[in-house]
Fold this protein.
Amino acid sequence: MPVNQDKKKIFPIWANQISLNKQVSILKTLTYFGQFNYPLTREELVIFLDQKISSVELTDNLHHLKKSGLIFQAGHFYSLKDDPALFETRVKGNLRALALLTQAENKSRLLYNFPFTRAVFISGSLSKNFAGEDADIDYFIITKSGRLWIARTLMHILKKISFLFGKQHLFCMNYYIDEENLKIIEQNSYTATEIFTLLPFCGDNSINEFFRINNWVNLYYPNYELKNLQPRTSVRSSFIKKFFELCLDNGFGNKIDDYLMKFTANRWKSKESANPITKKGRKMGIRVSKHFCKPNPDYYQEKMLKSYFRQLKAILIKFSQLCEEQKSTFLN
């Protein structure tokens, strides 16, 4: 039976392939952020969709997904869960983030003045403008090539001192790369989202170079535009930073950096054998090389992605079944 144009307007969920694809894209995006119990606004949906969409198309497709009972709306927010508490938590978290971002700016200035630091970004939930009641400030840091371990060790001395004052949550420096290793090799939905949302607070040309080298993010987010950003705050390197770098820009500095890398690697190897757990219940571990120090993706990233794909499969099966049901009802 041919489907006329009027009937297409009534049942675009299955009669219009373009509309169908865009609805799948919306479901994928809401499923991903649903892992973090984070509802999205219309504007955020557009940014994080894996294809282009017009305002009219977005309105129409959101309407049909809500009508089908697959997504829910509360105020400006959309989610796969009909849970008012999620929307309330998001609003409160956004307000807390405003205050915490001010502290993050001040702490970023401090970290940037550590020797061999070239850029300081805010990452994690705070970079997405959200802060829970026990939120940390997470940092993504770029260092001078070959001096990552000196920079990291000095920063982590500060971290140890911060425990004495109960301020350790303000100094979570958990991801380091140097100027020789700017490309993120784990290229997936998780890393693309984390790069997409990084907030550069302090730094030099390495900021734009980082975003240029990691333009593979466009494969996941076609609405992403290559960032040409100035850091949010302008900081001049202090005399102490320059002096310290001058003193260690030699063979002696190379030996110190190599020693600190080996020391940290051995320490964490021993530490991981005891199966340490974070306060959020996640296993702790890092991966180490001369040019990077990062959380072990096997302990969180991989598990999160498996959970995401499992939930995405379930929602897409449900979506497909609804399409078939509507098509069968319509044709019969």
About this structure: The radius of gyration is 23 Å. The chain has two domains: 5-82+305-331, 89-299. Residues 1-15 have pLDDT under 50 and may be disordered. The CA atoms of residues 12 and 19 lie 7 Å apart.
